[in-house]
Amino acid sequence: MDVAGVADTWIPYSVCPATSPFTDSTSSITYDIMPHIILLGTLDTKHAEILYLHHQLKQIASRLSQPLQVTLIDCGCQNIIDEAITVTHSDLIKKYAPSSREIRGLPRGEAIELMIGYVTRCVQDLLKTSTVHGIVGAGGSCGTSVISAVMRTAPIGLPKLIASTIASGNTSPVVGECDITLMYSVVDIAGTNGLLRDVLDNSAGAIFGMALAYQSRIPDAKVLADRQETPTPKTRVGITMFGVTTACVDRIRAHLEDNYSVEVYVFHATGHGGKAMERLVDEGRLDAILDVTTTEICDLVAGGTMSCDPDRLETMLKKGIPTIISVGATDMVNFGPKETVPPQYQDRKLVVHNPTVTLMRTSPDECRQVGEFIVDKVKRFAQDQTKVEVWLPGGGVSVLATPGSLFADADADSTLANAVQSGLEGTGTRVVCDDRDINNSEFAIDIANRLMVLVNGKNDLEAYKQFNIL
């Protein structure tokens, strides 16, 4: 089995032609496109169910007279023989196992980890050698863990859907920072009862529709080359936001879009938002960062529910792209319902944000640790100190932290600011101390303009005069 050749040679069924002409509405060029969907499943435990999903994809394509290519990869730990399977368990072992290692006798967890690696490499090979328009799978907890791990390595934007028994639980480990769509199976994926068939039918329809939508917005490379189109690139700016810094970020976004050639990506700083932003930086899909809302660091320090990973901030600093860091929403740590706040924090200043989120005011010591975290990352990982700045809004780091508000605490905020100032002194990283609060409209405009100064490489003095931010 040659995975690299699968996408070019395998036509899954005869009811649909191999190609179908599509005419682009903006061009007279006609070209052939066939959507390609990768189907993942553990056929040693979900044989009938995965084949049913495979069949439904074929049926939808047939009803719509739409050509479709399905690559079915068996993610199971035992070899299953079925003509519908494109890439068998044995194929994976033969191509990706260093010494054709037998998986069946291994402990379950170890076997699953190995299969994740093999299937991931197979999918990555397909993504490199052919055009893929969607990935779909179905499984219980183990199957979902395999399928989701593979999907998380696929590009953000490529449709991904899992029909899963654990879609209504804690899905953070499944989705991570990726754009995986989950459909709760309601019943276990065991057998083909009427309810499960409905769910799998919907899954097939959903991924089919998403694949067509994805196909329509990803022009064929040959067509672009024939047109000799070279779009004028916009600067892609990533910004972090929380509800309590929304006014700031909305003003930044509007100002950037009105005054510069930019495309703005706003990330909700709920733990995975920061991860998603840094992943896009790592993939080269963001050119500059306004990390306005670094609240995830507070949850890392105090054990909140929206924590970042310990490597937060590192990716953009290592990349050396223009980056401005601020301290938005560092006045709070996130927990679930009030009764779930850890006992050691029950006497702290708490605000019930909504029935599922309770906010705790950060202490001066926690704020010091947040400041030291930022300093440590900048000092150790910034490739170009002149492209990194830290802005400190002295009038309040969130809508709750302004004077007279629920989380107003000048001591805590100044402790954080002092930690940043003293820690970055003499490093070449510019620290801007501002008396305004983070949601002040003029503060937002100034920080936005300053980022574009870093992007465009203008002389500092000229920029300060232009934007009046001396």
Can you walk me through this structure?
This protein is an alpha/beta fold. The protein folds into 2 domains: 3-222, Rossmann fold (3-Layer(aba) Sandwich), CATH 3.40.50; 235-467, Uncharacterised protein family UPF0261, NC domain (Rossmann fold), CATH 3.40.50.12030. It is 41% helix and 17% strand. It has 16 helices and 16 strands. It has helices at residues 3-9, 47-63, 89-96, 108-129, 141-151, 172-175, 194-217, 221-227, 246-259, 272-282, 296-302, 314-319, 364-381, 410-424, 441-456, 460-467, and strands at residues 21-23, 30-32, 36-41, 69-74, 134-139, 160-164, 181-184, 235-241, 262-268, 288-291, 323-326, 332-335, 350-354, 357-361, 388-393, 430-434. It has a 6-stranded parallel sheet, sandwiched between helices. The protein has a 5-stranded parallel sheet with strand order 4-3-5-6-7, sandwiched between helices. The protein has a 3-stranded antiparallel sheet with strand order 12-14-13. β15, α14 and β16 (430-434) form a beta-alpha-beta unit. α11 (296-302) packs across α13 (364-381). The longest helix is centred in the middle third of the chain and has 24 residues, at 194-217. Residues 35-215, 234-453 form the UPF0261 domain.
